[in-house]
Amino acid sequence: MYLTRFRLNTARMGARKLLSSPQRMHAAVLAGFPELTSASSGEGRVLWRVDRGAKAKAFLYVVSQERPDYTHLVEQAGWPTLEGGWETSDYTPFLEKLTAGDVWAFRLTANPVHKVRTCDGQEDTKTTPHITQHHQAEWLLQRQEKAGFRVVRKAAGDPHPDGEGERELLVHDQRRLEFRKKRGDKSSVSLSAVTFDGRLEVTDPETLRRTLIHGLGRAKAYGCGLMTLAPSESWSR
C-alpha cells in the first residue's frame, strides 16, 4: 500500500474546478493508475481526502494499492515548473508496526448518516445525514470498536469548556456536497461530509489496518472514509 500527499495550487482554475466537484476529483485521482480496473479489491481500495488549511492551502491525500503517477494532476492543478509535485511513501511498514495500546492522533473525513422513516406507516427507510456535531460524534463512537480503535478519553479534571463530551474528539468543517454523476442527469447526488480530529488508542491492529486501507463509512468515491494517523503529540485543539 502507498500513501500520497499532493499540494493543490488553489490559485489555478484547474485546482478550483477539482475542489468544487468530488466527481472530477475522483476521476483525477483514479487517472493516476494506468492499470487500475477497479477502485476497490479485497486487498484495499483507492481512498482520497482533501485537507484545507489556512492561507488557501489544500492538500490531497490518497491511499492506494499501486504507486500513482500524478504528472497530469501537476499540470492541471499543481506547480509544473517546480520539482516534487507530490510525495508517495510505502505505507505497508507503517501499517505493520501498529500495535495494540499505541496512541495516535487521527483525522477522518466521513459521511455520517443514519436510516429513518420520514412518515408514519412508511415501510422503507431513507438514508439521512446527521446534522448536529453531537450526533456526528456519536456516529463515530458507535463504530470505533468495530474499526479497531477507541477514541481517547479526556484527562480527569479537564473542564470541557465546549461541552463536547469526555473524548478527545473535535468535529468540524461540515460541508454539503451536491453534484450530478453525468452531464445531463436530471437528478443530483447530495451528501454531507464532516471532518473528525482527535486521538485514538489502537485496540485491534489488524482491524485498524483494514479500516485505514478500506475506509470508514459511505461515499468513499467522493472523498469520504480516509483516516490517517500522526504522532500523538501533534494533536491539539
Automatic annotation (TrEMBL):
InterPro entries (alphabetical): CRISPR-assoc_prot_Cse3
Pfam family, one: CRISPR_assoc
Residue ranges of the TM segments: none
Protein name, entry field: CRISPR system Cascade subunit CasE
